[in-house]
RNA sequence: GUCCCCAUCGUCUAGAGGCCCAGGACGUCGCCCUUUCACGGCGAAAACACGGGUUCGACUCCCGUUGGGGACGCCA
């Protein structure tokens, strides 16, 4: 049987490096075995999925050089490759299970009569969980609740969509994060009830934050957006190489390798099962090697032009700096924030005469406000930040001062909103986050409180 | 809390019972090169979580403890 693997990202946010990591493993496994690598968009969350996010994810993965053989953009024999366009199959399956008494309606607390469809799971017994990376996994049915198959909005959940689509697309190997181990019984039960052969499962360890506890990589704690790394000036081949390095190092000791070399030598079965910390220090070192070893100065200049020294960026930066320029030479210092990854963040500069802990909270709230923007435009940023300062009862001028410093390292710089837009959402939020941690951060407990009120407002 | 998973230097890893008083890489420190810095070269410090087994022999196998992570959503 031809090997078929897939990456099934959910288009609900920034392109995540964890997605890229799993895409790499799926890609490598398929290539190594002469099979096909499929990209399927798992847009089953109607409220959070966006086309913008989908486009960003596809663009990022392509930027990294992970070409898929079948997908929503390139088509293929198992089209469509967008879950929302194939919900009929899921609904049929759900109805069939309902009719056969394998599933039941759950009206929950909905008074309007809308219901979800849940799969009936056994009450007793224990199920063996086949995993190609681990030995003898199992779980008591008692600890597995009845999964929702079809939500009351008529959309399938991941559990259903995933199984149905993997079956219909003839996926042979599901290589996914180990966060799914707990859900494996539900998926296996579906395969069994439907009379389908389940694929092989490989649950790969999650990438971790470089924090004290090594929690799973999250945007709250680390830069996780592939866009961030691109904008910070990392090369796609370096990022991809780094991701590969987390899974495999060659015996000869050389850690710089191409995608092809990774495909050729990497053995999924020998993957280390401990979650690797995403260490940006090593990534930076590797990136430096690519810059030094693979490009002559002329090519490097081309890289720079592609990165930020293009006409559009230069013109936008010039426009922002212009009112503050007396000589052309003033441009360098004024616009340096657009052409650097690191900006100075001195806690005293950031807080000024204000309370550092309070400023840290402002930065956190600003970060969330910007994160929620559907469109990252000057006007949208302006409105969001003004609304936030009003809700805090702080004058906008006072509120934005620390933001300037967070962005540029200086209180006197180019206009804030325009600068944010030019820097882009991922980079802007990263700088706010770094400034926040320079200020001592926001205590976890307080962050939860703020999150609750933030959620209510949103 | 319940269930599940994991465990080699600070970090990424090599190690598939003797080759290991544990190898490489990042980071750190020192020296060299050098008009500075960086690069490069050389070197140093730095780990088998702990306790029991099994075995002639355990980093490697088994059990327990501890630690960490993940899942407990009509999110994926």
Please outline what is shown here.
With 458 residues, the protein is mainly alpha-helical.
Summarize the structure in words.
With 458 residues, the chain is mainly alpha-helical. Helix content is 47%, strand content 8%. The chain is built from 19 helices and nine strands. A three-stranded antiparallel sheet has the order 3-4-7. Strands 1-2 form a two-stranded parallel sheet. The radius of gyration is 24 Å and the shape is globular. It binds one RNA strand of 76 nucleotides through strand 4, strand 6, strand 7, helix 4 and helix 7.
Keywords:
458 residues; mainly alpha; three-stranded antiparallel β-sheet; two-stranded parallel sheet; 19 helices; 9 strands; globular; RNA-binding
Task: Name the poorly predicted regions.
Answer: none
Alpha plus pi helix count: 19
> Largest beta sheet: what is the strand line-up?
3-4-7
Number of strands: 9
Beta content comes to 5-15%
Q: Main beta sheet: strand number and arrangement?
A: 3 strands, antiparallel
- The span between the termini is 49 Å
Order of helices and strands: EHEHHEEEEEHEHEHHHHHHHHHHHHHH
Helix/strand layout:
Elements: E1 4-7, H1 17-32, E2 36-39, H2 51-64, H3 87-99, E3 103-106, E4 116-119, E5 126-129, E6 137-140, E7 148-150, H4 158-168, E8 173-177, H5 184-194, E9 200-204, H6 226-231, H7 236-247, H8 259-265, H9 280-294, H10 297-307, H11 311-321, H12 331-335, H13 347-351, H14 356-371, H15 378-392, H16 396-408, H17 416-423, H18 425-438, H19 444-457
Parallel strand pairs: 1-2, 8-9
Antiparallel strand pairs: 3-4, 4-7, 5-6
Helix pairs in contact: 1-8, 3-4, 4-5, 7-9, 14-15, 14-18, 15-17, 16-18
The protein binds one RNA strand of 76 nucleotides through strand 4, strand 6, strand 7, helix 4 and helix 7.
